[in-house]
Amino acid sequence: MLLVLVGAGLMMAAAMVVYVDPFFHYHAPVKGFPYIVDNQLSQNPGMAANMDYNACIIGSSMTVNFDTDDFGELLGYDTLKLSYSGAYPRDDYNILSIVFDKNTNARKNRPMEAVFFAMDIPTMTADTDTTKYPLPEYLYDKNILNDVNYVLNKDVILQYIMRPVIQGKGSDLSEIYFSWWTPDYYNIDWVMHTYEEPEKAEKVITEQDVLPATKENLEKNILPFVIENPDTQFYFFFPPYSILYWHNLKRENFYDAAFFQYQYVADRLLEYDNVHLFYFQNRDFVTDLNNYADYSHYKPEINRYMVECFEDGSCEVKSSGQMAEELDRMKEIVEGFDFDGLFEKYR
After folding, report:
1. Cβ atoms 34, 92 nearer than 8 A
2. Is 65:179 a contact under the CB 8 Å cutoff?
3. What is the pLDDT of residue 11?
4. Mean pLDDT score of the chain, rounded to an integer?
5. How confident is the model at residue 14 (pLDDT cuts 50, 70, 90)?
6. Does position 93 have pLDDT exceeding 60, yes or no?
7. Are 16 and 161 in contact (CB under 8 A)?
């Protein structure tokens, strides 16, 4: 009798998870349920497979402060944010494989019209098969047997079904994954208080050091989606890290190699007619640390600015020569910045 009761309880718990499906593994959201979306690794694959959208945002924490309502307002897209903080190229590959899977509910309903992709050059030397964090594979594969890890998961039931029911409030899908920093954190005092200057590296990183992995990551993890989906418009952009990012590169002896990477990646991407490339790193605001919460993460107003640029073409790079000019301007900004004065004030 006890076994029967236990079995019935487990079946009821599994049925509840399948019905609500807080990770969207089986179906789109149930109307009226207050879903909490705060787990990129576990919830992104289900959203990519089952949400209704025709554009998506791909990339690292450089994308988390995008408000997808801006994409609807300015570009007319129903956009889904699929950020992975610290994303390696393989993370981008894994989620795009679901986005472009013609057998998912999302793609049966609508074609993918646009992808907005944060191109983080620092990650392009990562191993091509390595993800930033271990994945819950049972949410990424198509093996129904290992779904027991989901449907009988205590944390799923307590944190993603019971908690939102008790709270009565779910996430605003247009703002999911927003960074925890409030406006008070975007200021130079906070940035410099938390900034850790890298030790001066002895070894100089060369073009030959970065080219093989950069090339392989492009060809294995990114370009196949561009090539195989010519009707999809890809908006690649280089996120506007602060001026301190470039100081880090100098300290790490990665400076010249990074500029080579930017030019190489731009040249490869510009080979394709369905690519739009944007360079934001030499905008005036990158030298004002009041726009940042650390050396790389910028305030949401800059995310809005980038969407406006996607709409009107500002900051778009259309040729290899133009990219070289943008990088020359970036070098001028770095070389002309008073790092000594900055560190003297905050040391």
Report:
1. no
2. yes
3. 82
4. 95
5. confident
6. yes
7. yes
CB 238 within 8 A of CB 286: no
Q: Please state, in angstroms and as integers, the Cα–Cα distance from residue 161 to each residue in 17, 20, 203, following that order.
A: 8, 7, 52
CA angle 93, 156, 25 (to 5 degrees): 40
Ranges of beta strands (E only) in the chain are: 55-59, 79-83, 114-118, 233-238, 275-279, 316-317
Percent of the chain with pLDDT over 90: 94
Distance CA 195, CA 174 (A): 30
Residues 6+ apart with CB under 8 A from 40: 83, 84, 85, 177
Per-residue pLDDT at 109: 83
pLDDT at 172 over 70: yes
Exposed e or buried b for every residue in 111-141, given b needs 16+ CB within 10 A? ebbbbbbbbbbebbbbebeebbeebbebbbe
Query: Among candidates 273, 282, 269, which has minimal Cα distance to 325?
Result: 282
Q: Coil, strand, or helix at residue 22? A: coil
Q: Kindly state the average pLDDT of the residues 294-298.
A: 97
What pLDDT score was predicted for residue 1? Answer: 59
In the predicted model, is pLDDT for residue 3 greater than 70? Answer: no
Dihedral of alpha carbons 227, 228, 229, 231, sign = positive
Q: Using CB atoms within 10 Å of the CB of residue 260, give its burial: 0 to 12 exposed, 13 to 18 middle, 19+ buried.
A: buried
User: Is the confidence at residue 6, as pLDDT, over 60?
Assistant: no
CATH number, domain containing residue 334 = 3.40.50.1110
Distance CA(46)–CA(26), nearest Å, equals 7
- Give the pLDDT mean for 30-50: 97
The residue assigned the tokens 């208080």 is 193
- Identify the three-state secondary structure at position 236: strand
How far is 79 from 162, CA to CA, in rounded Å? Answer: 28
Dig out the tokens for 335 from the structure. Answer: 């070389």
Q: How many domains does the chain have?
A: 1
Residue by residue, DSSP assigns 60-128 as SGGGTT--HHHHHHHH---EEEEE-TT--HHHHHHHHHHHT-TTSHHHHH----EEEEE--GGGTTS-T
Task: Please give the residue range of the domain that contains residue 19.
Answer: 2-346
